[in-house]
Input
Amino acid sequence: MHGPDVTAYVILGALLFAIGALGVMIRRSPLIILLSVEIMLNASNLLLIAFSRLHGHEDGQIFAISVMAVAASEVVVGLGLIVAMGRRQIDLDVDKLRTLRG
Output
């Protein structure tokens, strides 16, 4: 046996990624789109960790931790923009947001 079986992790990761991609394509709310992107990032982190355990290396785990740090900073910036847009009474429909206003 080469390592642990990762079939269940691959199926779960693909399912989570598909749910996140569907949320990005269907929803118009920036908050839901942000959450869907986070689900997709968590699916990729799950697969990175599963495959790193399969091959016996820590590289995937280290990369997953760095992806989590980038995702956390993305959430901070995204939520800050959503709150600022909400305070200015700007419509939060993604299809209507074509230009940035100063």
Notes: The two ends are 59 Å apart (CA to CA). The domain at 7-96 is CATH 1.10.287.3510 (Helix Hairpins).
